[in-house]
Amino acid sequence: MSVDRLTKYYGDFAAVDGISFEIPAGQVVAVLGPNGAGKTTTLEILEGFADATTGQVSVLGKDPRRGGRAWRSRIGLVLQSTSLETEPTVAELLTLFARLYPNPRPIREVLELIDLTAEAKVRIGTLSGGQQRRVDLGLAMIGNPELLFLDEPTTGLDPEARRRCWASIERLNGSGTTILLTTHYLDEADKLADRVLVLSAGRLVADMTPTAMRASSGVSFVRLPLP
Ligand code: ATP
């Protein structure tokens, strides 16, 4: 994936202000930044849901706005807020989504990856917030995507629920999936990412390893994790 001098303007306001980066296949990259930094806007452009104002973007070899169906089926998405159906069971919803893809992962494998094997027959509306977020992850991975976009996958979850989401994300990356996630949390970027892109007011202010990030005082504006 490559992003070259990307901008997104709303009127005179630059939500994304000339950012460039590359993500090789297989990496986990975290886009870290406070509210309003431009994380979701960047993701929406990469996902093909929004137009860039200027700049070049290539995702799995294509311009996201011209990607088409086959391209889209190679990508999994977890949006910022969950909008799951509440009536079906976990297994029923996964089965329904599996039918949308040419080569879906076996449901059993997805349940293991998201650590919900024991909850397969539980209705989604009765799951905890963290379990529902892992269902979101399961739906994103059921089509066997090469690339996953996760928009704030653990915001609002308690520490244990966050750890279990992280474990699912790590297992997924272990199976070869490239992952781009956005987060407010230093600890999440540190735990999951090979590389961290720090956004502030639409600008890319750092592109570094988690180790370098820990040593840096320049990212102290980032909100601390929930207790
Ligand atoms: P958060 O962590 O709160 O989700 P973010 O880093 O994802 O923040 P964005 O949602 O990308 O930030 O927003 C970046 C900036 O662009 C914000 O100032 C936001 O108010 C502005 N913005 C986003 N969408 C629009 C829009 N449709 N019209 C005008 N301004 C917008």
TrEMBL record:
GO terms for biological process: response to antibiotic. Keywords: Antibiotic resistance, ATP-binding, Nucleotide-binding, Transport. It is found in: Cell membrane. It is a peripheral membrane protein. Its main location: membrane. Residues 1-226 form the ABC transporter domain. One of its GO terms (molecular function) is ATP binding. One of its GO terms (cellular component) is plasma membrane. This is ABC transporter ATP-binding protein. The chain holds residues 1 to 227 of 295 of the full protein.
